TrEMBL record:
One of its GO terms (molecular function) is NAD+ nucleosidase activity, cyclic ADP-ribose generating. The keyword Nucleotide-binding does not apply. InterPro entries: TIR_dom, Toll_tir_struct_dom_sf. It catalyses: NAD(+) + H2O = ADP-D-ribose + nicotinamide + H(+). It is an enzyme of class 3 (hydrolase). Pfam families: TIR. This is ADP-ribosyl cyclase/cyclic ADP-ribose hydrolase.
Length: 106
């Protein structure tokens, strides 16, 4: 089972911060779901992410970056995470990557 899920905007952080964070978590023995690592070709991406959030992850790490909110996909994923948090003990850990908190609030 997955213990954590990474939610991030690929074009902003995939080849930099998120890769390093994912590697560090795995190195620490924390099983981590990342869409480009865990979803097999041909599988429904939305269903797989929803399953990871609802059934496998205890923690969601949301990496807010400059273009995170510009992605409908990222926002839909965030809604799923926050809805799950309302009805469970799911932990949401926000990470602000190269953005200020005030930029995310707006």
């Amino acid at each position: 089972t997955q213990l954590s899920l990474l939610s991030f905007r690929g074009e902003d952080t995939r080849k930099s911060f998120t890769d390093h964070l994912y590697t560090a978590l795995v190195h620490l023995g924390i099983q981590t779901f990342r869409d480009d690592e865990e979803i097999e070709r041909g599988n429904n991406i939305k269903d797989e992410i929803e399953k990871a959030i609802l059934h496998h992850s205890k923690i969601s790490i949301v990496v807010f970056s400059k273009n995170y909110a510009a992605s409908t996909w990222c926002l839909n994923e965030l809604v799923m995470i926050l809805e799950h948090k309302k009805s469970s003990k799911h932990i949401v850990l926000p990470v602000f990557y190269d953005v200020d908190l005030s930029q995310v609030k707006n």
